[in-house]
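Exercise 3.2. Students should predict the tertiary structure of the chain below and write it as structure tokens, then compare their answer with the key that follows.

Predict this chain's 3D structure.
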Amino acid sequence: MPGDLTFDYIVVGAGTAGCLLANRLSADPNNRVLLLEAGKPDNYHWIHIPVGYLYCIGNPRADWLYNTEPDKGLNGRSLRYPRGKTLGGCSSINGMIYMRGQARDYDAWAKITGEDAWSWDSSLQDFKRHEDHHKLDKGADPETGHNSRFSDMHGSGGEWRVEKQRLRWDVLDSFADAAEQIGVEKTDDFNSGDNAGVGYFDVNQRSGWRWNTSKAFLRPIKNRKNLTVWTEALVEKLTFDQADGLRCNGAVVQRAGQSVSVSARKEVVLSAGAINSPQILQVSGVGPAGLLQSHGIDVVLDAPGVGENLQDHLQIRAVFKVAGTKTLNALASTLFGKAMIGLEYVAKRSGPMSMAPSQLGAFTRSDPARPHANLEYHVQPLSLDAFGEPLHAFPAITVSVCNLNPSSRGHVRIGSGDFRDAPKILPNYLDTEEDRKVAADSLRQVRQIMAQPAMAAYAPEEHKPGVQYQSDAELAKLAGDIANTIFHPVGTVRMGRADDAAAPLDPHLRVKGVAGLRVVDASIMPEITSGNTNSPTLMIAEKASQWILAGA
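Answer key:
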């Protein structure tokens, strides 16, 4: 540990947002920056092999191992709730899908907060600032040296690499044809502001390896003398000075068996994610007063919205047996098959070991009357009873579908005053009639796609949930039985207008009522984005870094 434990900026959490923030804030050599990560370095080999997410989720080496509380909408079930605990955070264990959401998401944020900088046109520039998109690689277009059709929407030369997937499957191509037959147009870019369509996802990989935010934003600056990175450093609480108004001036950190106090001259930036950021605030005395007092915590600031407004995408996994084609169920069922998969990856960095958890995607409407796509499909050439279970012995595909804009809201609340205890997570999935109706309609649409002529050659047979379930009530209850999180929790320390008492943050992500404290991660979203949430979190950090530096 350095002798001087006073820094200009302390960033709590070296995940998706924290790694980018550390890069941007330390670019000025006059800024001393401390980056704190509760997990270990990202030197675990399964982090970097794309299929390694199977060995990272549920593994204390890389996952916080959270579980939800029993959820009424899931008929009393609890879910495993993975969160990254290593350098790179969730970008080290997630599905690697590059997805921004829809332009309307960001325009809605601008309206909710009264800050035009959150609009799509403004946020697009922040997405492009760190992007390195394969479609703009030299030679992508033989005439111009790049694909000019995409240059308005994508960036090149940034730290965040976006590539095509390195495999395809005949049965997934046929599913795309079947989706087109019900009116879902094919697309080669889900990230232009309107993601309606069907196609293969782009992924955050480089040459067949996972590309996490630690590799993207920390490795290139590892020799900066003004950046200090502590791993296995768990924040016990934030500290405050009330001599001249309430100000956050640092944190107490448990490291190497010691409690160490670190100080920030300018700002403490909380980037611990939608679960851990509200937990840290609450154990530090910032949160709903009644909750804090019930656990013996002195109230520093009564902020009722801290931990509320939890939103997540719940995916309903339908499994269809197929015939006349091989799926990963068969390819990975024998030692020989596994050996061939391994050899292909070693030789070419392609094949199933380079796979994102989901390869083909589609965005469409659960009801033609809806003004925009409100469903996202993740289609996989494999099937299993539950995550972590063996693959089925029969050839099958999984068609997962989720409601992009759930109206249900949950919460994250501490269960004790001990910073080491896991918080209580209750998503309240399927809590509204609207969400239950969308769940039923989405399952019907899955069946409609699978019944199209393009899929006929595979003689698809519904294995799960089963054709006996037909009514809205049956399908909604069934969704509660078989659905699972798609790992997109957001919204638990949301931003809002200055006069919005339920919003803990102002539009520039500063904690209202506390100087020197900002939250920058997925927890700040007032409403969840219409797609995967990792890349929007990077955009949030990019925008916030400019505000932080300008404010200094």
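Discussion points: The chain has two domains: 1-129+206-311+411-425+489-552, 166-200+314-403+430-482. The first strand starts at residue 6 and ends at 12.
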